[in-house]
Design goal:
The chain is of the alpha+beta class. It is about 25% helix and about 20% strand. Strands 3-2-7-8-9 form a five-stranded mixed sheet, with no helix packed on it. A four-stranded mixed sheet has the order 4-1-13-10, with no helix packed on it. Strands 5-6 form a two-stranded antiparallel sheet. A hairpin with a 6-residue loop joins β7 and β8.
């Protein structure tokens, strides 16, 4: 085939794909071509606009390194990351809803004991977090692994300021006790902007959008035989709850960080300062039998 024009080019490309040996690659490639060509036909870009789009994607790639993934940031801000999450984690009764992982997870988080303070040298309003992990029908999951991480009261994560603070802080890995419970101390997080000094930031500005996320604490929870849970718990009343730049907020994940006076805290610790308290129960879905590894 030759002499392609607007009317026949899509069919020609689809014809070339028919020989793909992997059926999934064939399915994805065909859908990509159909939708991409339909997009181009709808917006009818000029040659200069096409070149601008190529240059935007090139700049996005150049911003990626071992500390920053601008393409994931682009996916997040276009709602694609949350769409993928929604497709793969449908809501089910008793299970905690999921949301995006975010860019600041660290595999080698320090192991801590229940009750430890994970704030390191960071200063801010003290925060007590108490929680529990169970099956969707309420059976405790002793030994569940609970990864937590969050920003400081200026909205920065530890990995963004290691040259200043010297070590990881405001993140840790806990294990639920015999009753599926865990607790720790830290500082209350603040809302923060995603990195917006690159092409994604330029896109947000052009679209008339802000780069802010509401304050939250990240949780990644796993237990043998259960689906890993990746979620946040958001601070009730945050002004960015309805305009989260990555579309990650769900009503079930919003909680009041209760302001408490000095004295005996919920975990038994006596404190001479006022503090905030977050309590949340997490429900994990069992891995479907057919999906389990032998």
């Amino acid at each position: 085939m030759r002499n392609f024009n607007e009317n026949i080019i899509t069919d020609a490309v689809l014809e070339r794909i028919k020989g793909a040996s992997d059926l999934r690659i064939k399915q994805v490639s065909e859908a990509l071509v159909r939708h991409l060509h339909a997009f181009v036909r709808e917006i009818r870009p000029t040659q200069n606009e096409w070149e601008f789009g190529i240059e935007f994607l090139t700049r996005t790639g150049h911003m990626c390194d071992d500390k920053r993934q601008e393409f994931i940031l682009l996916s997040d801000t276009l709602g694609v990351s949350m769409l993928v999450d929604a497709i793969n984690h449908p809501t089910s009764e008793g299970a905690t809803e999921t949301t995006v992982l975010g860019p600041f997870f660290v595999q080698a988080a320090p192991e801590k004991q229940n009750g430890d303070d994970i704030s390191g040298i960071m200063e801010g309003d003290p925060l007590l977090v108490t929680g529990s992990v169970s099956t969707v029908d309420g059976r405790p999951l002793p030994g569940a692994v609970v990864d937590v991480w969050h920003s400081d009261d200026d909205g920065y994560y530890d990995v963004q300021q290691l040259d200043k603070i010297g070590d990881l802080a405001m993140r840790a890995r806990f294990r639920a006790d015999d009753n599926g419970r865990f607790h720790f101390w830290s500082i209350k997080p603040a809302p923060y902007p995603i990195p917006h000094d690159g092409p994604v930031g330029d896109m947000l500005e052009a679209q008339g959008r802000h780069p802010w996320r509401p304050a939250h604490v990240h949780f990644m929870i796993s237990a043998p035989g259960f689906e890993q849970l990746v979620t946040h718990v958001f601070v009730a009343g945050d002004k960015y709850l309805d305009s989260d730049v990555v579309f990650g907020v769900k009503d079930s994940l919003i909680r009041t960080f209760e302001q408490c006076p000095p004295g005996k805290a919920q975990d038994g610790r006596v404190t001479d300062k006022g503090y905030f308290h977050l309590n949340y129960h997490f429900g994990l879905r069992q891995v479907p039998y057919g999906a389990r590894r032998v």
